[in-house]
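note to self — DONT lose this again. spent like an hour looking for the file last time. sequence + predicted structure for the chain T wanted, 185 res
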Amino acid sequence: MLSLVTDKFEVLTADVDERAAEIRMEEDGVPALKVSEHLAEIKAKAVYDTLSDEEKENSIVIGADTSVILDNIIFGKPADRDEAVRMLSLLSGHTHVVATGVAIFAGSEKKTFTEETRVEFYELDGYQKKLIEDYIDTGSPFDKAGGYGIQDMGALLVKGISGDYANVVGFPVARLARELSNMVK
């Protein structure tokens, strides 16, 4: 998705214990809608701190993290089939928020933001239950926040969205492009 903004980028992973950071944030009372933004900043800073001074001045480091939130509860990646069924069943019949936090380090500047998209799932009727079972059989839910991807068979669970579709896929690329244009002249 980043290639929509630039073709000059490198993907680096940050050595961050996300679960431990989430637990600390929960203990500190960080609202669920801001957890992803804080995680994005932690990830971006971890990569930024590995750069030389010259690289820091000539690079833009972007960190991102996505959460699925219902009733102020963050739905992470399901660990097993039972958890995937539970998550997708709880989301059914409700509207949840997909919140992607983004952190940008550009030279000495830093910008963070959270993009929110509302996603409504169909009611948990017999057909939705069958779709959930069939979807879990694909194995796709296990590497996705909230246990679904709107870009794959998970789309069949979705009644509608309000906001940025790309954000639900995993990255608010249009908002990123705007934020970068304000930072990098």
